Amino acid sequence: MIDRKSLLYKYFLICTAVILISFIALGAVLLLISSNYFNGEREESLKRSVNNITNGVASQMLANPDNWKGVATIRINEYSKNAGADLMIFSGDGEVLINTSLPEEIEFLKNTQLSTDLIGQYGNTPTPVYTDFDGQIEKELLTVGMKFVGNGPEYLLIAVASETPENNYTRDVMEIFVLSAVIVLVISMAIIYLSSIKITAPIHEMSDAAKKIGRGDFSVQLPEYSVSEFNDLAAAFNEMAASIKSYDTMRNSFIANVSHELRTPMTSIGGFVDGMLDKTIPPEEQDHYLKIISSEVHRLTRLVRSMLNLAKIEAGELKPNFSQFSVLDPIVDTLVTFEKRLEAKHIEVRGLDTDKRYNLWADEDLIHQVVYNLLENAIKFVDDGGYISFKFEEVGYLTVIYIRNSGEGLSQDELSLVFDRFYKTDKSRGMDAMGVGLGLNIVKSIIRLHGGKIQVRSVVNEYTEFMFSLPNKDIS
User: Fold this and answer.
1) What are phi and psi of 104, to 5 degrees?
2) Are residues 48 and 150 in the same domain?
3) pLDDT value of position 426
4) How many domains does the chain contain in total?
5) How far apart are CA 391 and CA 469, in angstroms?
6) CATH of the domain at 257
7) pTM score, two decimals?
8) Is residue 184 part of a domain?
9) Which of 384, 388, 354, 360 is nearest to 374 (CA)?
């Protein structure tokens, strides 16, 4: 049994209703056309009969004025059989003079005088009139009447249409039509039902695939379909499944990386604290290990803060507070923060002695974090005695900033991974154990939040350069 809430049931019901309504409308039109056609033919036939009879009766009145009724009765009975109508001749005042064997429904006319109003509706030529004889019968009948003069006074001949073969023919046609319509409807319903099952089959297949994905099976792939709409939907579904699988892999990797990043400092902290409590670490060395513990705690704090910032950006909760400021403001402030580290590695800073003011339209605090992370990364990898250079240019409504540091550079494999979460090069792990591998990922997220882009390029044993663009004016 079909579920009444299903698409199959609704599609089947709609198609069946459309076909049924079409048959009803077609039958009504066919009945109307055939009825009008036969009524028209009937009127013309009765007109010819009435005209011929009146001419014949008028001739008999002139030729045989004493016995014209006998001859006229014979004539109208013959015409009644041939024309399929009941015939009556009335006097000028509406009294029946001659009639054929009238059917029961108009038998009363033999003893009834026609009203003046009804007589007045007929003319001197065959005139069709639909009448209920002044309300004496329930339905109106087709009559054709004609006034004529034979032997002096005026007479009226009326032919009343009775049931004819044409009426039977119309009924037979409608019976055949109804029977044919029922057969066609049954066949159509069967075809529609089978077609509906075939049409909705891909939907059920997609539903099953969606349930499998919901259970964690991301290997589901839908086939190609012959219907273009379903084929497009299947392609989009497969892309979605691949994307979810990728996100699931990233999620698992993220959880594993977070677990690793949290476990490492927490293990160190726990081990050093236990060593101090059980006196494995002598009192004179405790200050050294307390500094390590403090460093690990700060590392955990940075990790949690970075993860919270990423979560806010991805959830759309972090809204930039736009303002206009010079691009040099966050750069100079950050360089002052790293002054000791710059002096320790004898790093030369280039490209800040610019005469032109380059502005940014952005959140100054977020851009300060971008510059801080990029410069921290550059100072980490710059060679001793090397340089960090800056370059600025305006391209339309964007300001492009280049930050380059000399040093070993990055390989092609590393270039495609530097913005991934928790990614650290082997060199980074050896040079800075305090990093959490989220700095460049946060940089990319913040720049995208402002509608900008960031890229990296490097030449091994020469330099690494980050290029990013930010709006320099309000374009909203």
Assistant:
1) -60, -35
2) yes
3) 47
4) 3
5) 12
6) 1.10.287
7) 0.46
8) no
9) 388
CB 170 within 8 A of CB 76: no
Degrees to nearest 5, angle at CA 417 with 415 and 421: 145
Distance CA 267, CA 292 (A): 12
Kindly give the parts of the chain with pLDDT less than 50. Answer: 1, 165, 426-436
How is residue 334 annotated by DSSP?
Answer: H
Q: b vs e for 157-187, b when ≥16 Cβ sit within 10 Å of the residue's Cβ?
A: bbbbbbebebbeebeeeeeebeeebeeeeee
Check whether residue 161 and residue 16 sit in a common domain.
yes
Residue ending a domain, choose from 242, 267, 298: 298
Ramachandran angles phi, psi of 416, nearest 5°: -80, -5
Matching residue, tokens 């045989």: 64
Range of the domain at 352: 319-471
Tell me the C-alpha distance between 235 and 221, whole Å. Answer: 9
Please tell me whether residue 158 adopts helix, strand or coil conformation: strand
Q: Is the C-alpha dihedral spanning 302, 308, 311, 313 positive or negative?
A: negative
Give Rg (Cα) of the chain. 52
CA angle 406, 409, 413 (to 5 degrees): 160
- Give the CA count within 13 Å in the CB-facing half-sphere of 256: 7
Torsion of CA 284, 286, 287, 288, to 10 degrees: 100
Question: Which residue(s) pair with 390 in the sheet?
Answer: 403
Output the CA–CA distances (angstroms, integers) from residue 47 to 101, 115, 146, 153, in the order listed. 20, 22, 9, 22
d(CA 40, CA 34) in angstroms, rounded, equals: 10
Separation between Cα atoms, residue 367 and residue 295, nearest integer Å: 26
Interhelix angle 228-277/165-214, rounded to 10 degrees, is 20
The answer to whether 240 and 246 are in contact (CB under 8 A) is no
Give the sheet arrangement for strand 154-161, strand by strand.
96-99, 85-91, 154-161, 141-149, 127-131
Pair 393, 278 in one domain: no
- List helix spans (H) across 278-398: 286-315, 328-337, 339-344, 364-381
Same-domain status, 265 and 401: no
The angle formed by the CA atoms of residues 162, 167 and 172, to the nearest 5 degrees, is: 150
**Backbone dihedral region of 94: left (phi > 0), alpha (psi from -120 to 50 degrees) or beta?**
left
Q: What is the dihedral of CA 112, 118, 121, 127, to 10 degrees?
A: -40
Q: Give the model's pLDDT for residue 37.
A: 65
Sheet holding 454-459, edge to edge: 348-350, 387-395, 398-406, 463-471, 454-459
**Which one-letter amino acid corresponds to residue 286?**
Q
Token pair 């002695």 is found at 353
Residue 199 sits at φ, ψ, to 5 deg, of -70, -40
- If asked whether residues 262 and 329 sit together in one domain, one would say no
Q: Is 89 part of any domain?
A: yes
Residue listed under structure tokens 């490097």: 458
